[in-house]
Write a structure and sequence with these properties.
Elements lengths: L3 E5 L3 E6 L2 E6 L5 E5 L3 E6 L5 E2 L1 H9 L3 E5 L5 E5 L8 H9 L3 H25 L5 H8 L9 H13 L14 H21 L18 H6 L4 H14 L8 H8 L5 E4 L2 E4 H16 L13
Parallel strand pairs: 1-5, 2-6, 5-7
Antiparallel strand pairs: 2-3, 3-4, 7-8, 9-10
InterPro entries: Cas1, CRISPR-assoc_Cas1, CRISPR-assoc_Cas1_C, CRISPR-assoc_Cas1_NMENI
Enzyme class: hydrolase
Cofactor: Mg(2+); Mn(2+)
Length: 296
């Protein structure tokens, strides 16, 4: 079943009653209830939102990702269940002891999938992508020749224009891309934990200050889905330099968007769980291939 994504951007008190989340506005004019089992994500984007610990316990038991936004209204932290898989300790050991050749092979698969999806996105937008198709076929173990970087330069210049630079503090639509990538990162972290993996231990990213290195790795092939949505939202709000409530709500629809995985269409949130489960099977030796989505 597709889980719901909830976005709260005004003062609310969130509590639990009969296994349902009760959202009561601070002015007590609005009172809504949602079954906790139907929720996948909750994004809290207001300093006057409060909640009961009993609700947090139930959200945690149902593997709900609770995302908190900072004073700049950007997602900044997240609550994750650390005991969400029956074979967690076994998977932890397999992940920690993974060999360098295995991790380099997994990164090769990841970059191949990312570049293929970037090429498909370019073609869907009416641009040529033959160079990216060639790069995807020539990625070596560990991507030692940086096909990812070469593809990115072509991808962004054709997708948005020669003057565009992908930068956290750059011109629009960077603000939408930033927001979408942070949401995607939290979704990948949730899926990794749900599959019994440590999101901290990456196969390529190894920044000691980064608690989500593996999430940063595995999200790469999913980025073009964020790019597509961000461009669509930007087209409707070309003069907005800052994200408004409507733009954020549109970006949150990413989780329910359909992607193709192994020839079957399914919501991105579900696809992420299948990707991370396949990664777990690679770590414990059951399989050698990570299942990534195909951009259509």
């Amino acid at each position: 079943m597709l889980k719901r994504t909830l976005f709260f951007s005004s003062p609310y008190y969130l509590s639990l009653k009969d296994c349902q989340l009760v959202a009561q506005s601070k002015d007590q004019l609005t009172n809504k209830t949602i079954p906790v089992e139907d929720i996948g994500f909750i994004v809290l984007d207001h300093p006057q939102i409060s909640f009961s610990m009993k609700l947090v316990e139930q959200l945690n038991a149902n593997k709900v990702a609770l995302v908190f936004c900072d004073s700049k209204h950007m997602p900044s932290s997240m609550l994750l269940n650390l005991e969400s898989h029956s074979l967690q300790s076994e998977l932890f050991r397999a992940q920690i002891s993974a060999s360098e050749p295995l991790k380099k092979n997994l990164w090769k698969q990841t970059i191949e999938a990312k570049i293929r999806n970037q090429a498909a996105h370019l073609e869907k937008q009416g641009h040529k992508a033959h160079e990216l198709r060639a790069y995807a076929k020539s990625v070596k173990s560990g991507d030692l020749e940086n096909r990812e970087g070469l593809a990115a330069r072509i991808y962004w210049s054709r997708l948005i224009g020669q003057g565009f630079f992908r930068d956290r503090y750059g011109d629009p639509p960077n603000h939408l891309l930033n927001y979408g990538y942070i949401l995607l990162r939290s979704a990948v972290a949730r899926a990794l934990v749900g599959s019994g993996l440590l999101p901290t231990l990456g196969i390529h990213h190894h920044n000691k200050y980064n608690a989500f290195c593996l999430a940063d790795d595995i999200m790469e092939p999913y980025r073009p889905f964020v790019d597509q949505l961000a461009l669509a939202v930007y087209g409707d709000y070309p003069d907005e330099l800052f994200l408004n409530k409507e733009m954020k709500a549109r970006m949150l629809s990413l989780m329910a968007g359909d992607v193709w995985l192994d020839g079957t269409k399914r919501p991105l949130m579900v696809a992420l769980s299948q990707t991370t489960a396949s990664l777990g099977r690679c770590f414990n030796g059951e399989n050698r291939k990570v299942v990534y989505p195909q951009f259509e």
